Amino acid sequence: MEQEPMARAATRLRDAQLRVTAQRMAVLSAVDELPGHPDVEAIRTRAQQVTGQLSLQATYNVLRVLTEAGMIRCTQIAGLPARYEPERKDNHHHFVCRVCGDIIDVECAVGAAPCLDANLPASYRIDEAAVTFWGTCERCASSAGTSGESSGDAERR
Q1: How far apart are CA 95 and CA 51, in angstroms?
Q2: Burial (CB count <10 Å: 0-12, 13-18, 19+), residue 67
Q3: Quick one: pLDDT at residue 2?
Q4: Distance (Å, rounded) from C-alpha 104 to C-alpha 120?
Q5: Residue 106, φ and ψ in degrees, nearest 5
Q6: Which of the ends of the chain has fewer CB neighbours closer than 10 A, N or C?
Q7: Of 148, 42, 137, which is closest to residue 99 (Cα–Cα)?
Q8: Which residues of 5-31 are buried (b: 16+ CB within 10 A; e: fewer)?
């Protein structure tokens, strides 16, 4: 029988040897439940449905703890606010639509970390490679001629 989201979050926090709090359970559940790569405000809004009041600073603090514990992944893409996703221990990159800002996971071409070979001295130890592909998603590309919306309009939303 599958646990409800908060009970599942509590179990995961205990397994990670973290203190179980309502804020941590709510934020972890929000990251798991929200689609795509939510930003801090979306996570906070979702978590507040459980906790009632949750400050922005408390949300950042919980996200930091969960990231450091390896439970969630923080993706920082130039020009965008930090985004979060569940840590799945997979190796993937991201595609960012320049029009709507959606972020989509892209499977690594090689599959094993770090996914790329860097021309560095043997003494350098690389454990991760982060690649961001930029372009236009299928939805925006198909509506480009019909909506009259520019990328600037999408950014102001």
Answers
A1: 33
A2: middle
A3: 57
A4: 29
A5: -125, 125
A6: N
A7: 137
A8: beeebbebbeeeebeeeebbbbbbbbb
pTM of the predicted model as reported, rounded to 2 decimal places = 0.78
Sign of the Cα pseudo-torsion (70, 72, 77, 81, in order): negative
List Cβ neighbours of 107 (8 Å cut-off, separation of 6 or more): 92, 93
Return d(Cα 112, Cα 157) in angstroms, integer: 37
Average pLDDT over residues 45-67: 95
Helices (H) and strands (E) in the chain, counts: 6, 5
